[in-house]
Specification:
Two copies of one chain form a homodimer. By secondary structure, chain A is mainly α. Chain A has two domains: 1-47, Arc Repressor Mutant, subunit A; 56-187, Orthogonal Bundle (Tetracycline Repressor, domain 2), CATH 1.10.357. Chain A has helices spanning 6-25, 28-35, 39-45, 49-72, 78-95, 97-106, 119-132, 141-161, 176-187. In chain A, α1 packs antiparallel against α2 (28-35) and α5 packs antiparallel against α7 (119-132). Chain A is elongated and about 60 Å long. In chain A, 41% of the residues are buried. The A-B interface holds A 22, 24-25, 109, 118, 120, 137, 139-140, 142-144, 146-147, 149-155, 158, 161, 165-167, 175, 178-179, 181-183, 185-188, 190-192 and B 22, 24-25, 109, 118, 120, 137, 139-140, 142-144, 146-147, 149-155, 158, 161, 165-167, 175, 178-179, 181-183, 185-188, 190-192.
Chain lengths: 192, 192
């Protein structure tokens, strides 16, 4: 593995600080200390805390969107791709939990996905495709994609904000297929 | 309607300030000004901003839990009650949008429901009852209730945080029954 650059070390440190005390509660000085760089060095890479958040958001959105689009635009029925996208989302979360949480649940609202296709739009594409193929129920594809998103985001948000209340999908992948079953049954045209 | 008390005016002002600039961004002075009371008067009712947030949280949890439990513990099949609870949740949101958002999506984590049964626990009771009656699929009732919660919370969160991205359930109740159909189909034992 390549030695992480100073820039990567700063981004990792910022993400860790944001996860621990929130964006508002994080000081640039703490990020620099955690990254093991001077504040001057940090400012050579990022002009502000806002710019750091934007970079983290664009990075996170980038890898989530890439992985999600790979499944959604790949082969198989829409039902198979919906299942793979749902299970895959929890896999991505376990690979980069802080980045996933930052992007999907609490990034400051000045962050924007930039040129990246937002995950919701990719899910809308999948739902529309399933409707065209007659696999999924009719209805507003954006709203249906939003409900699928809720089934991915809520277990993560609840386990993070209220530890112990719900099974933690971070340490336990045994619920992934039940969550996929839930969204597949919810969208399936047959059975309605 | 009774004239709102000074205490109610302070709570309403705090909720409005929190909704506009967040808990961290709100100053006690702004709450007092908005409520039309002196800071001294405010402090006679609430010792701190934290105490105000706790009071708002307990109030909001109280009326949501009462309305939800009324449906869940009422008559009808579990499927009928699941549908009524889902549609009813969006009705509650439209009645008190700021309070609903505060309680279910962004209350500071030092807030606790106190003696009130949390909405998730009420939904767990409904899912378990439907499983016992053979109406709902088997599986971890807490996780399944969490997914139902996600289908209620996500449309509200997305429409609030990214206006224009998804249909706004606040001004438009035409999606309520499609959302209820989604969770009913997701949990129905037949059709799986």
């Amino acid at each position: 593995m390549a030695r992480p650059s100073q820039k990567d070390a700063i981004l990792d440190a910022a993400l860790a600080c944001f996860a621990e005390v929130g964006f508002a509660g994080t000081k640039i000085r703490s990020i620099a200390e955690r990254a093991g760089v001077s504040q001057g060095a940090l400012y050579r890479h990022f002009a502000s805390k806002e710019e750091l958040a934007r970079a983290l958001y664009a990075d996170g959105m980038g890898w989530i969107a890439e992985a999600l689009a790979h499944v959604v635009d790949g082969g198989g029925t829409a039902t198979e791709r919906l299942r793979a996208a749902t299970v895959g989302a929890f896999g991505l979360y376990r690979e980069h939990p802080s980045s996933f949480r930052f992007v999907l649940t609490w990034a400051p609202d000045f962050c924007s996905p930039g040129d990246v296709e937002p995950p919701l739009a990719i899910l809308v594409r999948l739902v529309s495709d399933g409707q065209t193929r007659g696999e999924f129920v009719e209805g507003d594809a954006t709203m249906l994609a939003c409900l699928v998103m809720g089934c991915i985001v809520e277990p993560i948000v609840l386990a993070t904000n209220a530890p112990g209340l719900v099974p933690d999908v971070l340490s336990d992948d045994s619920h992934d297929s039940a969550i996929a079953d839930f969204v597949v049954a919810a969208l399936a045209r047959h059975g309605r």
